[in-house]
Write a structure and sequence with these properties.
Length: 309
Amino acid sequence: MHKHKTPNSGESDLELLQNKFNAAKKSTLVSVAVNSLLSIWQIIVGIFSHSSGLIADGIHTLSDLVADFVVLIANKKSHKKPDADHPYGHFRYENGASLILGIILLIVGVGMGWSAVDKMLHPELIPEVHTAALVAALTALVAKEGLFRYMLHVANKVNSSMLVANAWHARSDAASSLVVAIGIVGSLCGIRILDPIAALIVGTFVFRMGYKFTYQSMQDLMDKGADEETLEQISNVIRSVKEIKGFHDLKTRKSGDFLLVDVHLELDAQMTILEGHDIAVNVRKQLMKNPQILDVMTHLDPYDEYCLH
C-alpha cells in the first residue's frame, strides 16, 4: 500500500493554494467594505425618505457581513497545515461554510416571500416614499451587481465553491435592491402591488439558490464522489501507465474543493515489491498533475491471467 497525507507536493502547488487563500481574503474584504457602506447608506436614506423597503434592504445587506465573516474564518481555517487529528488537512471548512451560506440564502428567501405575501394581502400597508429612496436603491443595485461580478470572477479564477456561494449571495442582494427599486417606482406611479409581486419572484429565486448550495455542501460533507467525467479522466490516466494490467475499486470523495482518490492497481504477480512501488509512485505522480486532486492512495493487487483474483 502506498499513501501520502499531504496536498500536491511542490512549490507550484503550494503557490496555487496560497494564491487561492489570498484571492479569497481580498475579495471578501472588498465585500465587507462595500456592504458596510451600503447598509449604512440604505438605512439612513430609508429613514429620511420613509421607505420601509429600503430600510429592510439595508438590514438585508447587513446579513452579507455575517456571510463575509463566515467566509473569512473558513478560508483561514481551511488552509491550516495537516496535523495529527486532521492528516488530510482542514479543507472541509469550506464545505461547512458553503452549507452555512446556503442556509442563510434559504432564510432570506423565505423572509422575502413571507413579507411579499403579507403585502399582497394588505396593500394598504405599503407606504408612499420619496424619490431619494429610488436613487439610493439604484445606487445599491449597481454596487451589488458590480460586487457580484467581481467576486464570481475571483471565485472561478481560483476554483472555489465557497467563494461562488458567497458571490451568489451578493447577487441575491442585488436582486433585493432591484425589488426595492421596482417597488419604489410602483409606489411613485401609484401601482403599489408591483413591490410584493417582484419580491415574491426574487424571494423564490433566492430560496432556490440557497437550496442548491445547501444540498451540494451536504453531499460533499457526506463524501460524495466525483462526477462521471472526472472519474473517466482519472481512469484514462491510470490506463495510460503501460505496466498496469487493470484496476478496480476506484473511489473519490470531496475535501473542500479538492478530491481524495483511492484505487486498487493490478500488477504482474511476478513483479518485485520495489517495481510495484515505483509503478504506484508513477501513477500517483500522473494523477496529481490534476490540480483538483489533493491526495492519492493506491493498493497493489497481484494479477495472474490464469487465476482469478
